[in-house]
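U., I forgot to send this yesterday:
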Amino acid sequence: MLESTCYGFIYLFEALACFLFFENIYFRKEEINNTLFYLTYVFAFIVQYGISFAGIPVLNLVIFIICNTVIALVCYETKIKTATLTSLVLTVLMFITEMVVVYFSSMVLKIDINAYENDILVLVTQSSLSKLLFFMAIFFISKIIKFKFFRTQSDKYTIMLGFFPLVTIIIMYFLTYFEI
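Result:
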């Protein structure tokens, strides 16, 4: 149960990080209503979370790419090539940040690479650090892209980017500590 909750937070954080990334680099479609907009994100989150129980990492990556491409195409003014490229960039960033944390833990802290499968504290710690690193990479890349193309949309979501990773880490540690 605790592991499922942790994975729920992981996928929720990824969905919100991608939402904030897309909000920074794309313009929303004017014809899309808020209900469809948010339902697209919720559906993508549910699909990714559900597929994660299959336990096939490659499938998780493919679904992540597909879901983010669909989100970009349905919700934002973009073309399929751009949406796919953006989704691939997000996937590569996510993969790299996860590998950096896992291999750092393995080499420096002498934690087995697969320890997250059996130790919930390792899962929470590694996922928290990797998602925080993922967030930081997304944040800086979206700012570079935004600056490069002189994007003028409001930065109202940027503040959320700063607080969400910290709140997520606190909640996951709280759940682990009390074994909820």
